[in-house]
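Researcher: Go.
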Amino acid sequence: MRLRRPHVDGEELRESFQPRVWIRLVVLSLLIAYTVAFVLENAKRVHVHFVFTTTSVSLIWVIILCLAIGLLAGIAGSQLYRHRRRRSSGSQPPDAV
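Model: Structure:
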């Protein structure tokens, strides 16, 4: 008994090929590889000096903490700006520009 390879139509193969999926897969793989390399490169320990104490932590934790603080400060700042802008526009008479 001899098995035959199924016939694959070239047109069907071209229609089923999705370059966007492959591009996303490559970009995601590169992003993951970059993130792993970034974490491994910043794994050394550094001293963080506070007012009354000093501690030694991994540099990646300092970077992540600064990123989180900056992100939260940016979100809080934009909310305060929106709230103040909304309040100041509501207190003016409608005909004032």
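Model: The chain has a mean pLDDT of 84.
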